Amino acid sequence: MTKKDVQKRVYKNGKHLPLDKFEWDEEERIFSSNEDDLMIYFADFNSYTFKVKNNCLICAGNKCTFEANNDCTFYTGDKCSFKAHNYCSFKTGDYCKFETYNYCSFKTYNYCNFKTHRGCTFDTGSFCEFETDKHYNDCTFNVGVYCNFK
Predict the structure, then answer these.
(1) Distances from the Cα of 81 to the Cα of 14, 23, 33, 48, angstroms
(2) How far is CA 2 from CA 16, 29, 90, 117, in A?
(3) CB within 8 A of 38, min separation 6: which ones?
(4) How many CB atoms lie within 10 A of CB 27?
(5) What single string gives the DSSP state of each residue in 13-31?
(6) What is the largest CA-CA distance in the chain?
(7) pLDDT tens string 57-66
(8) What count of other Cβ atoms lies within 10 Å of the Cβ of residue 85?
(9) Residue 74: in which H helix or E strand, if any?
(10) Are 47 and 29 in contact (CB under 8 A)?
(11) Which residues pair with 12 in a beta bridge?
(12) Where are the domains of the chain?
């Protein structure tokens, strides 16, 4: 996919993001931008990496990797990896890995791993593993069977 192809999938304020406002590594399949408030649509594409700032909405396929700041929302398929800051929301498939800060919401399927700080909400399938900070009681869990808590 070329940089112009990527541009057709990235919006800011209802318009395509200008080419000079993002980087695209075609060989490694890495999208990165220092812009806030992006809407990125890669729902039919797998194995991409996204590096974004604040208040972004990202729809992606399977086996994607995400690095984001605050207030981002992710809709993905299976086997994705996330590193995010505060107030992010995730809706994913199975086998995902999350490392976040505070007040994030998760709705996932099975076999996911979570390492978070306080005030998070989890709605997951079975066989998930949770590691939260010492404010464990600040988190809300609605999870399937065979889940491990550290």
Answers:
(1) 27, 20, 18, 11
(2) 15, 10, 28, 38
(3) 10, 11, 12, 17, 52, 53, 56, 57, 58
(4) 5
(5) TTEEPPGGG-EEETTTTEE
(6) 48
(7) 999 999 999 9
(8) 19
(9) strand 73-75
(10) yes
(11) 15, 38
(12) 3-149
DSSP string spanning 81-122?
EEE--SS-EEE--SS-EEE--SS-EEE--SS-EEE--SS-EE
> How far is CA 58 from its chain centroid?
7
For 129, the 3-state DSSP assignment is strand
* Placement of tokens 């995010």 in the chain: 84
Could you report the per-residue pLDDT of 81-112, keeping only the tens digit for each? 999 999 999 999 999 999 999 999 999 999 99
Fill in the DSSP letter of residue 8.
T
